[in-house]
Amino acid sequence: MGNCWGTNQQQTSSSSRRVSAAASIIAAVAPRSEGDILQSANVRSFTFNELRTSTRNFRPDSVLGEGGFGFVFKGWIDEKTFAPARPGTGMVIAVKKLNQEGFQGHREWLAEVNYLGQLSHPNLVRLVGYCLEDEQRLLVYEFMPRGSLENHLFRRGSHFQPLSWNLRMKVALGAAKGLAFLHGEKAKVIYRDFKTSNVLLDSKYNAKLSDFGLAKDGPTGDKSHVSTRVLGTYGYAAPEYLATGHLTAKSDVYSFGVVLLELLSGWRALDKNRPSSEHNLVEWARPFLRNKRRIFRILDARLGGQYSLPGAQKAAALALQCLSGDSRNRPTMDQVVAALQQLQQHDDEDDDAAAAAKDTMEQQRGRLM
User: Fold this and answer.
1) Coil, strand or helix at 199
2) Ranges in the chain annotated CATH 3.30.200.20
3) Contact 127/109 with Cβ under 8 angstroms?
């Protein structure tokens, strides 16, 4: 789970605790206690020993990553029985194990089960199950072989090749669809911690949102926002949320704008290794986003010019809209999805036109020879 602001006092007992539940396709009545949440979750309850066996006793060489919640381990289970399986057989899983000394604990663990245990969408990571045993808190997910978007954008090395323009736009569209689903009528959830490390990629670079520990139910009735403690990750939070604690779906739209800008530039939202005027990506890039002729200043050099300039300009204009200081001027996530779909369609048409032009040139060259 992500880096959080503030000191978040956690309860690690298994006593009932009222937690706001996501609007669910499955449950007609939102669960109000820990027992109700765990019963309504459409996932499997694992024992600690089952998960210890599936991960080979949480061996260090099976660690996939580490976050505020704790370490994530690679494991294997039988696809039908969900019993532990030998490495390399059955279904691959990712097991997130709570760090007892970490800042994030039972409350976030329960929120994760609550939301991902009930909501299902192609662009949300699948929660396979959980473990609640004594002080142990674990979560079991589908394994995402290409890891996080953060690694592909910011890590250097032979294992992480620069993402092409088309893959970046594919990831942006998939993540946007996930947020649009959360904001829709079936879920009405505010994600609250959208960032590159929480966007996971499958083998075909399909994006899926993970880590719902900070998610909140959206406002109900005539309320325009949810008042809450300011939690999230520096660099991604909307300015009005930081100033007032008023959380809306447009807060997620701002965070999406930050990630879209990271996709365009290949730079982190906050990077103190850069010159002081460039520490904050949004502040530095905003003047270039406003000027079509200067868009090239923010585009990732690793793209090697393999993109259409009109497409890059449209993506930059969309990012600028999402990053508006006035939340009322930001698009909805449904509108973002529509814009990205149109952009992808234009990019495909440009690719087809370029391929046709290349074929024509080759045919003409053949006639001359």
Assistant:
1) strand
2) 34-142
3) no
pLDDT per residue as tens digits for the range 54-90: 999 999 999 998 877 789 999 999 999 999 999 999 9
| Rounded Cα–Cα distance for residues 147 and 205 (Å) | 10
Closest CA to 40 of 24, 55, 56, 53: 24
Q: Do the bridges between strand 136-142 and strand 91-98 make them parallel or antiparallel, or are there none, so unpaired? A: antiparallel
Can you say which residues are annotated as belonging to the binding site? 97
Give the C-alpha separation, 199 to 81, whole Å.
29
Binding-site residues from annotation for ATP: 97
DSSP 8-class letter at 124: B
Q: What number is the average pLDDT over the span 232-248?
A: 91
The residues, any chain, with a CB within 8 Å of residue 276's CB and separated by 6 or more, are none
Respond yes or no: is residue 78 known to be catalytic.
no
Q: Is 1.10.510.10 the CATH number for 149-353?
A: yes
The one catalytic residue in 193, 217, 252, 347 is 193
d(CA 39, CA 28): 13
Distance CA 267, CA 259 (A): 10
Angle of helix 281-289 versus helix 249-265 axis, rounded to 10 = 80
CATH number corresponding to 34-142: 3.30.200.20
| pLDDT for the residue numbered 350 | 60
β pairing state of 44-45 and 127-133: parallel
- Does 128 score more than 70 pLDDT? yes
Cβ-count burial of 317 within 10 angstroms (0-12 exposed, 13-18 middle, 19+ buried)? middle
